UniProtKB/TrEMBL annotation:
Identification of the protein by name: Flagellar export chaperone FliS
InterPro entries linked: FliS (IPR003713), FliS_sf (IPR036584)
BP GO annotations: bacterial-type flagellum assembly; bacterial-type flagellum-dependent cell motility
Protein's gene: fliS
Keyword Chaperone annotated: yes
Organism annotation: Actinoplanes aureus
One Pfam family here: FliS
Lineage, top ranks: Bacteria, Bacillati, Actinomycetota, Actinomycetes, Micromonosporales
GO cellular component, one term: cytosol
Length: 124
């Protein structure tokens, strides 16, 4: 088996065996990575890369929003609203090629990622 195939298999196995909390932190980690890469791509006028990364980030935000149980806790509606705002900002940033809007989204999401990571590690 080739190295890329082994890596893909390892990643798929990691996803398939991860707890829900770990999956959430993995999504946030990838979202932040996409935002950092898209911000850099916009600043370097790499439009195709920026569009690809922002589109993927939007898909992750949609997944986070769709999987959020609004009835589960009091803060869920606020988080859903934040996801809606982030999605709108990312679409606008992609259209306007605005790295500062991407950076603003990243700055809002990084503390959430850190909080979810802390909660996940406390639960294990």
């Amino acid at each position: 088996m080739s190295a890329p195939n082994l890596r893909d298999r390892y990643l798929q196995d990691s996803i398939n065996t991860a707890s829900p909390a770990k999956l959430l932190t993995m999504l946030y980690d990838r979202l932040i990575l996409d935002l950092m890469q898209s911000e850099e791509a916009i600043r370097n006028d790499e439009r195709d890369v920026a569009n690809e990364k922002l589109s993927h980030a939007q898909e992750i935000v949609i997944e986070l929003r769709c999987s959020l149980d609004i009835e589960a806790w009091d803060g869920a509606p606020g988080l859903a609203n934040l996801y809606g705002f982030i999605l709108t900002e990312l679409i606008g940033a992609n259209i306007k090629r605005d790295a500062d809007r991407v950076a603003g989204c990243r700055k809002l999401l990084e503390p959430l990622r850190d909080a979810w990571r802390e909660a996940a590690s406390a639960g294990t």
